[in-house]
Structures are given as C-alpha cells and as structure tokens.
Amino acid sequence: xxxxxxxxxADLSEAVELGAAGTYxxxxxxxxxxxxxxVERPERVIDISRLPLDRIEDLPGGGLRIGALARNARVAAxxxxxxxYPVLARALLSGASPQLxxxxxxxxxxxxxxxxxxxxxxxxxxxxxxxxxxCEAIGGLDRGHAVLGASESCVAVHPSDMCVALAALGATxxxxxxxxxxxxxxxxxxxxxGRTPHVETVLGNDLVTSVDLPPGLPAHGAYVKVRDRASxxxxxxxxxxxxxxxxxxxxxVRIALGGVAARPWRAYEAEELLTGAAPxxxxxxxxxxAALAGARPLRDNAFKAELARRLIQRTLTELAGxx
Length: 323
Hints:
Blueprint: E1 5-7, H1 12-19, E2 23-25, H2 31-36, E3 44-47, E4 56-58, E5 64-67, H3 72-77, H4 79-84, H5 86-94, H6 98-103, H7 106-111, H8 117-120, H9 162-169, E6 172-177, E7 180-185, H10 186-189, E8 207-213, E9 221-226, E10 237-246, E11 249-258, E12 265-266, H11 268-274, H12 281-291, H13 302-320
Parallel strand pairs: 1-3, 2-3
Antiparallel strand pairs: 4-5, 5-8, 6-7, 6-8, 9-10, 10-11, 11-12
Helix pairs in contact: 5-9, 11-12, 12-13
C-alpha cells in the first residue's frame, strides 16, 4: 500500500470541503482492498466514519431515511425496514458475510466498485481503471459480465445486492456538495459505461448523506439471488420484485435486476406490460421476455439472459400466489 495523507473531518461541511481533494473512507470494506492491490491509489483519504450520518428515521408521510453511515447489518435488522421494505432487508442479508455486513455502510454499498477480475488485475487492460487502456474482458473470460447496457469500452457489472432492491423501491440518494445539497433517484445515480466507464456515478465531488425510501409501496416482494455458491458470492443474476394484486389485476409492480449490467437494471418495459394485466403465466412470461429484449450476451454468458428471464417469471408466479 502506498503512503497517503489521512484526515478526519470534524463535521459535514469540513468533510465536503476536504472531499474535493481526496477519497472518502467509511467502512473500508471495498476501498482498503483496492488500495492494498493498488487498483486505487489515493493521495488523501478522508475518514468520515465518525460523522453523525448513521440514523434511520421516519419521514413525514410514511417514508424512511437511512443515513449513509448506517451499517448494512443494522439496516437489515431494523423493524421498520423489515416490516415496510422487506425486499431491502433480504437483499442486504444476501450480500457478503455477517462480519462484512457489520462493517459495511449504506453509502459505501452504493459506491462499491465492480468485481471484474480484469479491473482488479493491475497488469490487465481496463478502461475503468485506466481510461483508454482497453478492455481485456471483451474476448476474454466474460462469463460473469454484462448482458445489458454494456459498451465497446466496458462490460463489467455492478456487484451490489442492496442497490438492486433500492432500484425496485424507487429510492432517492441525498448528496451534499460545495454547491449545496441535491437529491438523485437511485435509478439515475449509477451510469452506464458508454465511452467513459471510469465515470461510474453522478456523484462528482459530492458526499452521499442518506437514502430515502418512499411510502406507499407494497411490502409483498422478494429478492432472489443466483450465485455459484451458497454464500459470500456475487450474483450471476439477481432480481428484486414488488407485486400488488387487487381485484384480479396487477396494480403495482416493480422489477429490478442485478448481475447483468453496470448498474442495477430496472425493467420498465416488463412493468408496463404487467400493470393492469391478469397475474397469470402468460403475462409473466411476456414480461420476462420484454425485460431481456435488449440483452447482448458475450461469448460465455448467454445463459445469464435466459436465467434472468426464468428468475423473473418464477418470482412473479410465487408472489402472485397466497401472500
């Protein structure tokens, strides 16, 4: 690990000011690994772990605000999250090990980097790590890579489970910066690679302060994750689904996919097909096909598109049964 300057700001305003010239450190479960492997080489590390950004509090109207420094384990165990947003609790419990969940934060989870092997290998060409270097994953070992939203510059996927649930929930990410505060829908927070895969979010020099969960969503939902082994593995494909059926028709439906793109993938086309439809096998099959209509598999990962289709259809079918 290379030498760096370590600073611990006393408050949020100082953190925002220092962050313009440094890299934020919260739980450290991703950043420290990247620094050890010299994938990231920050000259200045800003430790925000002791700022008062870990509260979980109710919002007027029934929503919930989760502080950026709230630990993943604590969020998953919170009674309000479990009762009103169980899909988020299930997604968090699907990620990492208990030890890491006790350390990792909500803000850090939003900002974790891809687990692409070429990104972690400093001897390999990677446009995400070194802009303009090329992408060895294209034509290389591509089994775990993207089938949606990729580009000629990058085919890496976003690794978060939590963010897939947040996308289905329509959460909002609150930011603080030198120019003031702003809020960004989580579905707009992460960027597709295009020609600039090293620019992964809309963050800029802002600091994530909290995440807002909206009120009025059906609690009936599921997070399902398919992976190579039963624990502590990133998703090959995951799906977060919310479903509310009333009077024989689908009233509310939300579908988001993980493991298939550089950001959590919201399946808007599938949702549109399902809204107002009868909750039957035909509707679910057509929605699953629509969700993956834009898939562009690589040499070794075509199975991901079919796996995602089947996972969507199966999850919808199970949710449509007795709750």
